[in-house]
């Protein structure tokens, strides 16, 4: 039945394994294969956040070059449950800064299988969105399945979003002001700095 | 740790169980509880597709009334694997018509647990999007987990999207024309009917 479908329709789309939408303009998946490139084209990606330390595969590099997609690589070792070293949180912070910068959207986050490293980054992003922790874990586990790791959940739980949130508040403040300071917006000539959002 | 988080932040958001984004303006979940209403407000829903035959719970009805959300109910029995009767495909077709009508977006699809009925509707929607069947199944199983049902996969596989697709092509044709008929757009005064997309 499936083969008939494929034969009838040359445009059949094959999303990468573990593909999903996270938010408007944010997607997640495992490592895209050449068979997924047709699908990826439909996303009109502006950037990719790649979470493995290995060099980006040549076919994938050709794809991002051909479509003028920015590649942000944050090399995080693919650990096993028994590993004692944990994900460096400053790496996740760096990736989060790229992720929340709408100038990079639409953006695809991926590692190898789209379970652990991607799951940790999305989990930290959900904390930033003030999702309750049990919902963050539920989403993590939906993608990790039986491969879920207690170390990942612990990483997500203890990851400190407050600092990043304050940084965001400070940007919002510079843009809009808040409370009784809202008038500050009116005095741009007073030398209030334009917000600078830095990627990486 | 989580309780501390909740106490620190009154705005903690609790998405419904099995919540996820499907596409821009399309969400899926299990039955929302009152504790999820704060989160649902952030979605600015215009409509809800409810797939159970049971009357909508009063709290949920109050929520949709208060937020001027249109409720589309398509009563599908919650079956068990052993059940011999299958989902009526015309009911799914009806729900699909509401789902793809952007005037209803943002829309939330939900049944009770967000696994089987919701999974079947989303699966048929993916076929309409020309996703390959193995990717459709992967997504279905991510949400159904160990509760996945072979009958649901069979339903999705055999569901006929061609008729609905032709109906869409005919709407697109009326809007834009295609191929050598593109000029038809120029002659609206010739009595070419305006497309009428009917909900339900």
UniProtKB/TrEMBL annotation, chains A, B:
It is an enzyme of class 3 (hydrolase). The keyword Phosphoprotein does not apply. This is diphosphoinositol-polyphosphate diphosphatase. It catalyses: 3,5-bis(diphospho)-1D-myo-inositol 1,2,4,6-tetrakisphosphate + H2O = 3-diphospho-1D-myo-inositol 1,2,4,5,6-pentakisphosphate + phosphate + 2 H(+); 6-diphospho-1D-myo-inositol pentakisphosphate + H2O = 1D-myo-inositol hexakisphosphate + phosphate + H(+); 5-diphospho-1D-myo-inositol 1,2,3,4,6-pentakisphosphate + H2O = 1D-myo-inositol hexakisphosphate + phosphate + H(+); 1,5-bis(diphospho)-1D-myo-inositol 2,3,4,6-tetrakisphosphate + H2O = 1-diphospho-1D-myo-inositol 2,3,4,5,6-pentakisphosphate + phosphate + 2 H(+). It holds the Pfam family Y_phosphatase2. It comes from Populus deltoides. Residues 18-174 form the Tyrosine-protein phosphatase domain. PANTHER family: TYROSINE-PROTEIN PHOSPHATASE, TYROSINE-PROTEIN PHOSPHATASE DSP5. The keyword Flavoprotein does not apply. GO terms for cellular component: cytoplasm.
């Amino acid at each position: 039945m499936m083969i008939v479908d494929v034969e009838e329709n040359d445009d059949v789309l094959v999303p990468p394994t573990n593909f999903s939408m996270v938010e408007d303009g944010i997607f997640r998946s495992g490592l895209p294969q050449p068979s997924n490139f047709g699908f990826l084209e439909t996303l009109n990606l502006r950037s990719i956040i790649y979470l493995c330390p290995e060099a980006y595969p040549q076919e994938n590099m050709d794809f991002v070059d051909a479509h003028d997609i920015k590649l942000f690589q944050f090399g995080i070792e693919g650990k096993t449950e028994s590993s004692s070293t944990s994900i460096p949180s400053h790496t996740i912070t760096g990736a989060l800064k790229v992720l929340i910068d709408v100038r990079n959207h639409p953006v695809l986050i991926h590692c190898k299988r789209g379970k652990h490293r991607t799951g940790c980054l999305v989990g930290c992003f959900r904390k930033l969105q003030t999702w309750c922790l049990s919902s963050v874990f539920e989403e993590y586990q939906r993608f990790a399945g039986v491969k879920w790791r207690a170390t990942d959940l612990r990483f997500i739980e203890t990851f400190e979003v407050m600092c990043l949130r304050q940084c965001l508040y400070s940007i919002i403040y510079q843009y809009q002001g808040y409370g009784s300071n809202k008038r500050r917006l009116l005095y741009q000539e007073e030398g209030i700095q334009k917000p600078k959002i830095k990627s990486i």
